[in-house]
Amino acid sequence: MTRRPVIVAATVLAGLTSTAAFATWSHVKQPTSVSGAVETLSAPTLTAPSTGSSSSKTITVTWTQSKTSVTDVAATGYNVTRYAIDAQGNPDAGTAACGGTSQTGLTCSDTVPVDGKYAYSVTATYKSWTKKSAANSGTVTVASVVVTHSYALTGPTGNPTAGAAFNVTITAKANSATDTSYTGTKTLDWTGGQTIGTSPAFPDSLPTSASFTNGVATVSLTLFKAGARSLTATDHASTTYTGTLSGSVDSAGVTLAFNPSGTVTFTLNQTKNFTVDVPNDAYGNAFTRQNPLVVNLGLSSTSHWSLSATATGTFTATLTLNITSGPAGNTFSVKENGNNNNANITLSGTVTATGFTAPTSDTVTE
Description:
Blueprint: H1 4-25, E1 33-34, E2 37-38, E3 46-48, E4 52-54, E5 58-63, E6 77-85, E7 95-96, E8 107-111, E9 116-126, E10 129-132, E11 140-142, E12 149-154, E13 165-174, E14 177-178, E15 184-191, E16 195-196, E17 202-203, E18 209-212, E19 216-222, E20 227-235, E21 242-249, E22 254-258, E23 264-266, E24 271-277, E25 294-300, E26 303-307, E27 316-322, E28 333-337, E29 342-347, E30 351-353, E31 356-357, E32 361-365
Parallel strand pairs: 4-11, 22-29, 23-30
Antiparallel strand pairs: 1-2, 3-5, 5-8, 6-7, 6-9, 9-10, 9-11, 12-13, 13-14, 13-19, 15-18, 15-20, 16-17, 20-21, 22-24, 24-27, 25-26, 25-28, 29-32, 30-31
């Protein structure tokens, strides 16, 4: 009779021990068990980048899908880590890559901060479970190419004339190649534009925009100030696109007057002086001679006389004519050779010489 309390106490103690043990196991989170199998999460495998080099700082990272082992449920997210590799080949502690956000797909693009060597790992997540890739990706060496943008401006083959419109081709460049991605209407800023005259004033006409297709646009310009010119066009929104066009603009046509009045009589082998008055063109550009003025007198290319002189000033030059033989008829033609501008020569009055008479006017190409 005296042992029963001991037995009861032992039974109670055993019951308490069993209850405590059960409570302890119930706080441990275990994978789902199906038919006795333990559920686990498979590790993703990185498929890119592989060991190699890249000229871009943007690296594409890809991996295989991670799933639960028994219920075959896909992981719900992936966290990508980037490791900078030092000169000895050792990775640093790692930095969250691909924007630092969990990825739901199986690829992402990561932009590295500087050139160097990098490797990646990826960790799958499913509920509270995580599983990191068994190995890091290959090491990619980033040596980015610095892209320099610019404009190349191409004008006409010859000098444009003051007051006359001409086309300029603008080509957007990425380094030395045409930047075919540069497309659409771009606002242009210009430097180097000039105005000639005051009343009236003639400012250069420069386009404020250009429509690019595959990196190329054509625009129309009209310049009024003659002489050496340099113009620079720049994309207003992206100022790295800029380029300069340099060259010369010819003055517009002018009227040249030979001996404004009176009659000049010549005798063969006699030397006479002609005074040529050269006014400004319609926009106020001075007509400055850079080469001798050559006037051919004759009925054909095989019967002519020449006079030559260099301008002594911007507006006036004195030319000497020595007639050494006469043409077959009584008239001769007048023309100017060797220059690029257009000009009209007007002979006022009658110029006579023994055996022939000059016409009253003619048009020359200078």
